[in-house]
Amino acid sequence: MPLSDAQARQILDAALAAARRVDAGAESVVTLHGGRQGHTRFGRNEITTAGEVDEVTVTIAIQRARRRAAASTNQTDPASLRATAEAAGRMVQLAPEDPEVLPVLGPQRYAKVEAHDPAVARLSPADRSAAVAQVIALAESAGLQVAGFLGHSETVLAVATSAGLRALHRETRLSFSVTARTPDGTGSGRAAAISHALRDVDPVALGRKAVERAQRSRRPARLEPGRYTVVLEEEAVGDLLAFLTMSLDARSADEGRSFFTRAGGGNRLGERLFPEHITLRADPSNRQTPAAPFDAEGLPLAPLVIIERGVLRTLLYSRFWAQRQGRQPTGEPRVYHLLGGTATPSDLIAGVRRGVLISRLWYLRWLEPQSLLVTGLTRDGVFLIEDGQIAGPVNNFRFNDSPVNMLRNADALSRDTLRTEGTAGHLRVPALRTHDFHLSSISEAI
Predict the structure, then answer these.
(1) Whether residues 163 and 287 fall in one domain
(2) Which pLDDT tens digit goes with each residue over 108-117?
């Protein structure tokens, strides 16, 4: 069973006490991450693996003046915590001085966030296998094969410092993804959902969507590469937007290493970079996509407006860089929300004379980080749009483009938004229509 809040606090206090015994004059930070995870994996219409993990990791960091070192353990008994603190104490003696080490934080105030669903916490292996069995039966009735992953977790994240900070956040997470393939190997469809709440993830509905997409995408026609108007579904938008959210560091911009660097020096705060209908926020207390209200140091994560009606309003400041620049630190947000517009999915397609509907992107990699240029592949359903109608499936592509161009050239966003997972945190995004998207070459993948 996952740790209770009381047990987590007891471990934090014991770890801080162990650090004090090692070096009574030093500052210390203890971070705890623990919980229960379960998963069921399936492929070729049968369950292949299932597992349960219940684990706790405790990290003890000791800092004296400008020196800092940390050690971690997954054992929480007094002897193990003492040995971990002693290891950190030995390493801090050897650590070089770091001018960017700041004093640990004292007591803080945090927003109230509700990200825990008891229904997810209670899920069992039998519950998972029953849900997967329904999806497999759906695929078999359609003559298709499916593969996918159902995972859930209940976790606690806690931070404590020798200066009196105490932070604790408990959350659940449920994710389901399924890919359906046609027997002839020419059609593929995928559907996925992630949430903290059981009500938001319906495996059968997702399985049905994947099956329908696979059937529609079989025997694709050839379409030449080029620059197209594209409708990107939510998962594709999230895949690309993640490269922008991971590039919001103010220091990189101020030091001339970022897309957000101003020509001639400084950053681009206050500049209009996108159309008025583009707004990006970061708010851990968002009810649709809640997240921990503090970062790894225990710094409170306040709601931020990153882009407001196309204008860059906020970059992310660490405590050190905020002090250097005379700004307020923001910490590292754990959730970003690109606000939707007014369009329905059919509205997005209806506005296209000739273009492409893209369901999903994958295998994305940087080409040029300073301009946010990214490469990747389409997957699991690409369709030609002609005169506002889906004309039929076409081949996959490699693309070379950027989240900047995606947002700059977007002229319509869907009303509804969907949670996706990004490298730099959770994302909630709409589908959108954008122009001049560079599909650079044909991909033979399905």
Answers:
(1) no
(2) 999 999 999 9
46-64 vs 373-386, strand pairing mode:
unpaired
CA-based angle 74:80:82, to the nearest 5? 130
Residues spanned by the domain of 69: 5-213
Q: How many domains does the chain have?
A: 2
Enter the pTM of the model. Answer: 0.95
| Phi-psi map region of 138: left, alpha, beta (phi>0 left; psi -120 to 50 alpha) | alpha
Determine the Cα–Cα distance for residues 364 and 360; give it in Å rounded to an integer: 11
- Is the pLDDT assigned to residue 423 strictly greater than 80? no
Residue 194 and residue 60 share a domain: yes
Cβ atoms 261, 248 nearer than 8 A: no
Task: Find the angle CA(328)-CA(333)-CA(338) to the nearest 5 degrees.
Answer: 110
301 and 411 housed in the same domain: yes
DSSP string over 191-242:
EEEEESSGGG--HHHHHHHHHHHHHHHSSPBP---EEEEEEEPHHHHHHHHH
For residue range 145-186, what is the model confidence (pLDDT) as tens digits?
Answer: 999 999 999 999 999 999 999 999 999 999 999 999 999 999
My answer on whether 406 and 430 are in the same domain is yes
CATH of the domain at 145: 3.30.2290.10
